[in-house]
Structure formats: C-alpha cells, structure tokens
Amino acid sequence: MSLVFKDELFDAQWLRAAGHSAYGGAEINECFVAARSIRELDGESWHRSWNELAMRVRAEGDASLARNNRVSALGSYLRASNYFRVAYCFLIGTRVDPRLAAAYRNHRASFEAAIELMQPKGERVAIPYEGKTLHGYVFRPAGDATPRSTLIINGGYDSTAEESYFFSGAAAVARGYTVIAFDGPGQGAALIEDGLVFRPDWEKVITPVVDFALARPEVDAKRVALLGISFGGYLAPRAASAEPRLAALIADPGEYSLFEEFKNRMPGFLARGLASRNPFALLVLGVVLARRLRHPTGGWGLRRGLWTHGVNSALAYIRLTTDYSSVDRAQRIRCPTLVCSAENDDIGVTAPALFEALACEKAFMAFKASEGAGEHCEAGARSLFNQRAFDWLDAVFRGRSSMAGPTTAAQE
Questions:
Q1: Average pLDDT of the chain?
Q2: For 343-412, where are the E strands, in sequence order?
C-alpha cells in the first residue's frame, strides 16, 4: 500500500525520511509538504523539493543559535541533516553529480552543527584504516569516561554515519550505550570524499574499528556489539565471522548471499540467463540490464551498485555479488547473534538461511506489516525495532542466554 507516491521506491525513500522523526530527524508534515511538489519518477523535482526544505530548516537553526536557543537549533540541524541526505538520493550514479556532493557535505555539516549542541556533545573521530582514516562519530550517554556497553553501527549501501544516529544511535545512547558510527568503504565520506568502494572481506574494515573502540576509555571491552543495517546485514556477519572480540551481533535484515538476494528480485528469465553462462544469454542479459539502468527507479539499485563497487557495467556488478556470501563463514560466528527480517522487505530474503547456518547462540525476529514494521529496516516503526533489539541485547549483556516471548520468533 503506497503512502505518498505510486512508485514503490519513491514511497519507500519518503517513508525512510519521515520515519527518522522518531529520533528527531524529521517532522511528518514537513515531509508531506516536501512530497507535494515532487512529480512521480522525477529525481530533479525530488532533489529540488527536499533541498529547499533542508535549506529552510537549517536557516531556522542558524537563527535559533544566533539567539542562543540551543535546543531549538539542535532540532533544526538534525532535521536539516536528514533532509539534505534525502535530497541527493535520486542523484546517485556512476558520474558523481556535483549536487550530490554538495548535498552530502550539507548533510554532514548540519549534523556536525547538531552534535556540538548535544548533551553530552557528540565527537567526530577519524578511525585509522590502511594508511587512511574512516570518518565517524562517538556518542556517549554521559560526560564521564566510564566504560559502558558499546554499539558499533555498520550502515548499508547508501546510508551514512550521520544517518546511523537516527536508525539506532540515539536509541542506544538513551539506553546507556556508548555508540560508534562510521563510514566504511563504499559509504558516505569514504566513497564521496575518498573514492573507496565496497570490499567483500569486511573483517578488514571492522577489525580496525574494534581496535579503535577498545582504545577508548568509555568502551567496555567485554561488551561490544555490532549492528549491521540494510546491506550491513551482510557486512556485519561477514566481519563477525573473523572478529572474536565482538560480544554480540545484530543483522537487520540478515543477508546470507547478495547474489541470491539479487536472483530473488530478477525476472526468472534473467536469473536463468545469468546462471547458464551461455554467451548469447549473457549478451541478451547485458542488453536488458543496460536498458534497465536508464529507468529512474527500476535501475536505481543497479546504478548505485556500479558507483559503490567501482564497476562499469550492470553485468559486472551482478557477477561480483557472488563474492558477498557468508555461506562458508556464518558457522564461524561465535558471539550471540540476532537475525531480523521484515515482512514486506524483499531485501533480506536470505535471512532465514543465515539464521539456520549459525552455530552460535542465536535468535530470529520477524517484524510484521500488521505492527507497522513490515518495510525495509522497519522504516516508519524503527522505535519498535529498537525496543525489541535492545531488549535482546541488554539480556545478552546481562548474561542471559535468550529472551522469551513474542520478540523472538525463533531461537536456539
């Protein structure tokens, strides 16, 4: 059922933006107003409407700050940050649109203005990584350096360290956690500013992040959890399979194989053509995918994949997805693991397979449309996800093996 737009992806991205209202990243009616001037399947009007809203909201924040109304300014900067991110969503492509880079920088600058007004302040950090650094933040529930349970948030394809705060960062801080959010290769600053693309061996990314975390005084070394959001539902389990210092793992949604996820969303004849490796079939498939790339929303995921993985054809992108699999690695995960899925989400269809492959203490949570939580990453009901996921994580960190009741649909 569409909420605002007939197009499924436009509607999903609108809900993602509006859903961040739960943690100060949006006002629902501001999002409705922005939608009124957007034409279906028109990325130009999408960018223009959200960017104008973001500029107005940020200007209101500047005015409040000039009057020393810090609480008002904080709210404006948080919303502006989210709106700037939404504005560049449909500008994504292999050629980086200058407006995308500008909106991203406004997104980050607005968020960094906000963290200066938080109590306690958020801290911008640079995490050492292969001779470079990864952009990120540390958020603390209190001003002291007491070691606390810690959550590392690992975003997905087009998420950013800043958006991670709205997904689950604010919820974790409110529950007393230290939070570390970062952009890995293929994400946010690492991609847009430094040109780093995704890599399948994500343990090479998370190990430096854990090294960084364990050097912080406000991190309890025995209680460090990793949360993977969206494509992070593959990245985080892959990393956990080789990172023994993690005390818990959450995959939302769980992704066992990126290639199988793709096959599920392909028409049957395309999937068969890809599997056959017949030269003629692959030629036809390449033509079909090239045509699909030009569709405003039907080709959006492919265009995003080309950019974030650094390849020049849709066929090359789909071929490389076979490297993004936990089929031979999931059984190596040793920490308690929560695998999630949402009823209407065609991303995460391999979550049950990931759950079955795990040999560790594990739980499965299935979020339902009837609860308002059936969309990708529980968009529009993220506070419900956080309630259940953090109840599970709190129990793990208290030493209890699992939780009874409706929040765990399956567990061992």
A1: 93
A2: 362-367, 410-411
